[in-house]
Amino acid sequence: MDSHRGRRAFLRFLAASPYVAALGGIREFAEGAPEIANSSEAHSVMDFEDVARRKVTPVHWAFIASGVDDDATLRANREGFQHVQLRPRRLCDATHLDMRTDLFGTVYASPIFTCPTSGEKFLDPAGELAVARATKAHGAMQMLSNSTSTALEEVNSAHGRPVWFQLYAPSAWQACEKIIRRVEAAGCPVIALTVDSTTGRNSETYLRALPKNLQPCLSCHAAGLGPSVEGRKMYDGIDMKGVALRNPAMTWEFVDRLRKATSLKLLLKGVDTREDARLAVEHGIDGILVSNHGGRATETGRSTIEALPEVVTEVGGRIPVFLDGGVRRGTDVFKALALGAKAVGIGRPYLWGLGAFGQAGVERVLEIVQGELKLAMGNCGTPTVAAIDRSYVAKRLSW
């Protein structure tokens, strides 16, 4: 009898769960669906998750799947999009839909880009090169991590044009400057300085997954897939003895110094408030990436899509605003664009694709999200990305 009561209580819990409710009528089909055998069988980016989970080692899976503390911000990023509704306009000509987006003078096929993620070779031997070839095939922008496991110059070659570069500022300016000069020499047009993880993070879920004996991990992490400098290609030729990979002393004075040190476009990645957005403009920053590191920096409990409007309002069109965090659908991209984002980044979905089927998986992820965005544009009556504005979204009401 107790077991029956427990089962009924569990079922009641599931019925009340917002996660299960979010699945709607698809859950009876999704829960029993067989695992896809190749990328072409995927109907949504979520189809890649289970395949990648099976293929990737548990500790590496924990690294990409987890957040910090209780993973509340990780969950909030996804839930935030459910609080924004679409307001489609009808009887609009959708014969010709144009997703092309101009980012600092370069035109991309869509406003969707791949976010920087650490050392991607732990998911596929081709790593960042597979992502570069996939983004090239779909005309997407690639933002490369400072912790890349593949040389920047090789990634640029595979991508067909220079990528954007994400910078973790080391504690010594000399080391930082050498990285900047290499990025400039490679022809990269944009540096995105990460400002949301200067003092580390409490990656509790990931730490629990670490094996007690770390010896088997050393060959992987010595290849640039962990916290050590060895194997991380951007530190080649730089004396990092006594230099921390993050700079806890970084302030707006450092931003000013970086601004004066390079003529490249400079973004701040991790600005989520109007106060910091105002300061970014005052300090000559060229753009803001509203991001919380995929829920992997500070446990704010606040989604990026909810932080976006105040940043956009504060900058008032003076500089472009970008967004990442929790994006799983083309409709998510549409919502972010409507709330003022210039372009929208995806992270975990393309990593699932990479871990599941390599380059083919990343290509299919991009194809799916771009296709969903195009459908949303047509059904909402917006023939171009520029036509998407706040009139096409509404905040969900609590009835």
TrEMBL record:
<dbReference type="InterPro" id="IPR000262">
    <property type="entry name" value="FMN-dep_DH"/>
</dbReference>
<feature type="binding site">
    <location>
        <position position="296"/>
    </location>
    <ligand>
        <name>glyoxylate</name>
    </ligand>
</feature>
<feature type="binding site">
    <location>
        <begin position="324"/>
        <end position="328"/>
    </location>
    <ligand>
        <name>FMN</name>
    </ligand>
</feature>
<dbReference type="InterPro" id="IPR012133">
    <property type="entry name" value="Alpha-hydoxy_acid_DH_FMN"/>
</dbReference>
<feature type="binding site">
    <location>
        <position position="269"/>
    </location>
    <ligand>
        <name>FMN</name>
    </ligand>
</feature>
<feature type="binding site">
    <location>
        <position position="145"/>
    </location>
    <ligand>
        <name>FMN</name>
    </ligand>
</feature>
<dbReference type="Pfam" id="PF01070">
    <property type="entry name" value="FMN_dh"/>
</dbReference>
<feature type="binding site">
    <location>
        <begin position="347"/>
        <end position="348"/>
    </location>
    <ligand>
        <name>FMN</name>
    </ligand>
</feature>
<keyword id="KW-0285">Flavoprotein</keyword>
<dbReference type="InterPro" id="IPR013785">
    <property type="entry name" value="Aldolase_TIM"/>
</dbReference>
<keyword id="KW-0560">Oxidoreductase</keyword>
<feature type="binding site">
    <location>
        <position position="194"/>
    </location>
    <ligand>
        <name>FMN</name>
    </ligand>
</feature>
<feature type="binding site">
    <location>
        <position position="166"/>
    </location>
    <ligand>
        <name>FMN</name>
    </ligand>
</feature>
<dbReference type="InterPro" id="IPR037396">
    <property type="entry name" value="FMN_HAD"/>
</dbReference>
<feature type="active site" description="Proton acceptor">
    <location>
        <position position="293"/>
    </location>
</feature>
<feature type="binding site">
    <location>
        <position position="293"/>
    </location>
    <ligand>
        <name>glyoxylate</name>
    </ligand>
</feature>
<dbReference type="GO" id="GO:0016491">
    <property type="term" value="F:oxidoreductase activity"/>
</dbReference>
<feature type="binding site">
    <location>
        <position position="168"/>
    </location>
    <ligand>
        <name>glyoxylate</name>
    </ligand>
</feature>
<protein>
    <submittedName>
        <fullName>FMN-dependent alpha-hydroxy acid dehydrogenase</fullName>
    </submittedName>
</protein>
<feature type="domain" description="FMN hydroxy acid dehydrogenase">
    <location>
        <begin position="37"/>
        <end position="398"/>
    </location>
</feature>
<dbReference type="InterPro" id="IPR006311">
    <property type="entry name" value="TAT_signal"/>
</dbReference>
<dbReference type="GO" id="GO:0010181">
    <property type="term" value="F:FMN binding"/>
</dbReference>
<feature type="binding site">
    <location>
        <position position="291"/>
    </location>
    <ligand>
        <name>FMN</name>
    </ligand>
</feature>
<comment type="similarity">
    <text>Belongs to the FMN-dependent alpha-hydroxy acid dehydrogenase family.</text>
</comment>
<keyword id="KW-0288">FMN</keyword>
